[in-house]
């Protein structure tokens, strides 16, 4: 059966430059002259060809020419992040390529490195325009929509928390004002500050717990559905919801405690003098 798979012509140092991670076999090497008839598969290609387990050593024909598999690399997101990684094969180039992939030295500035590259490029190809682009910029464009969604979601989340805290603060102030005389009577009868704080805070904590019981399964459902559109994604863990719930409770207690402690520390004489 003939199958048309993307074939990439690369040099010996291509894998080292882009950071190949091998699950089987080895990279191209100048120590092996037979590597001119060797290929490297990504995992998607090995799976597509039905190589279960060890794929190294298998023979594949391209244009009636045999190639031996010497390695299998982990899949890399090269094209769209919204689609599964395509099955791809890599073989050594047998001529001059139009594109050169370079990895800049992190200890050297970008401008000096580009200037040196231009000097080398124009020396060997003076009639060809010197053009370059960064792979990081290409990936940034691919994931730009997700980054914008993340920033917008963060901004709206902060605004929602701020508005919620304002509402809790106002409601706590109202409740404390309504129960001022009750608090005074309880203090006269020997109630501690901690017990009064718990009395005024427990109703708010209960409401937040009910809200979390409703919001947690709904948020898990919608987040899981959103992540499923990506072939390669992170998994939702229980600790994310645990930390979020703990944070919501902490913010609630911090917001309510100010008014609760203020009412609990009030001199009961002032709240009961009109009685």
Automatic annotation (TrEMBL):
InterPro entries for the chain: ABC3_permease_C, MacB_PCD, Macrolide_Exporter_MacB
Domain annotation MacB-like periplasmic core: ranges: 10-119
Transmembrane region(s): 156-176, 188-216, 236-256
Organism classification: Bacteria, Pseudomonadati, Bacteroidota, Cytophagia, Cytophagales
Signal peptide: none
UniProt keyword list: Cell membrane, Membrane, Transmembrane, Transmembrane helix
Source organism superkingdom: Bacteria
Cellular compartments annotated: Cell membrane
Native source organism of the sequence: Rhabdobacter roseus
Topology within the bilayer: Multi-pass membrane protein
GO CC terms: plasma membrane
Single annotated GO MF: transmembrane transporter activity
Protein name: ABC-type antimicrobial peptide transport system permease subunit
């Amino acid at each position: 059966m003939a199958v048309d798979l993307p074939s990439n012509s690369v040099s010996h140092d291509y894998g080292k430059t882009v950071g190949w991670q091998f699950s089987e076999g080895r990279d191209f090497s100048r120590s092996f002259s037979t590597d001119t008839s060797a290929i490297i598969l990504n995992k998607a290609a090995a799976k597509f060809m039905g190589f279960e387990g060890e794929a190294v050593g298998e023979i594949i024909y391209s244009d009636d020419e045999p190639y031996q598999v010497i390695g299998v690399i982990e899949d890399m997101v090269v094209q769209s992040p919204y689609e599964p990684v395509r099955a791809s094969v890599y073989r050594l180039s047998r001529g001059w390529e139009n594109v050169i992939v370079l990895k800049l030295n992190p200890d050297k500035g970008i401008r000096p490195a580009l200037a040196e590259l231009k000097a080398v490029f124009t020396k060997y190809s003076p009639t060809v325009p010197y053009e370059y682009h960064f792979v990081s910029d290409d990936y940034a464009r691919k994931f730009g929509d997700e980054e914008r969604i993340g920033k917008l979601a963060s901004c709206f989340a902060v605004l929602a928390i701020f508005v919620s805290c304002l509402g809790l603060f106002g409601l706590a102030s109202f409740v404390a004002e309504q129960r001022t005389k009750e608090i005074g009577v309880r203090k006269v009868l020997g109630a501690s500050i901690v017990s009064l704080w718990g009395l005024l805070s427990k109703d708010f904590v209960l409401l937040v717990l009910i809200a979390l019981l409703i919001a947690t399964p709904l948020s898990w459902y919608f987040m899981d559905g959103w992540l499923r559109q990506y072939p390669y994604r992170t998994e939702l863990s229980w600790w994310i919801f645990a930390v979020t719930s703990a944070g919501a409770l902490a913010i609630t207690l911090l917001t309510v405690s100010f008014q609760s402690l203020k009412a609990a520390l009030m001199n009961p004489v002032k709240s009961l003098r009109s009685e």
